[in-house]
Amino acid sequence: EDELSRSSHSNPGKSLVNGIKTNPASNSPKSSLPVPMGPPVYVDLAYIPNHCSGKNTDPEFFKRVRASYYVVSGNDAANGEPSRAVLDSLLEGKSQWGENLQVTLIPTHDTEVTREWYQQTHEKQQELNIMVLASSSTVVMQDESFPACKIEF
């Protein structure tokens, strides 16, 4: 904290990211700075970033963020959402956990990509203890209705 305070006061344009001094103006999502390895993070629920787009999520995400439930919200085939590569990354990342924890994948939309991935990788999903939750529940609110599922912890 002392180092962070000193660097902030002496260099107002610089900050620490993962213990490395950076210039916030030059930071970008595809930064060339190496991401330090650390222990995985365990969470109950994780939302797969950017509507399950391949732009921001790779096997490393699933190696490091270990969730009981992953939400896949992509519904834009023109933009590659959800991305088959991201769904495959879940399989690759989970295969390296070294423990067989139950994982539930929750797609918020019924898409062709998700259906094909489910059918083509079903055996691998079973081997890795991954369940895809399909819900036929619908929430109706005033003039709007949408698919939904209930998750209890």
TrEMBL record:
Gene Ontology biological process terms in this record: axonogenesis; dendrite development; microtubule cytoskeleton organization; regulation of microtubule depolymerization
GO cellular component terms attached to this protein's record: cytosol; dendrite; microtubule; microtubule associated complex; neuronal cell body; synapse
Secretion signal span: none
Biased composition (Polar residues): 20-31
InterPro entries: MAP1 (IPR026074)
GO molecular function, one term: microtubule binding
Region described as Disordered: 1-35
Protein name as annotated: MAP1A protein
Organism: Ciconia maguari
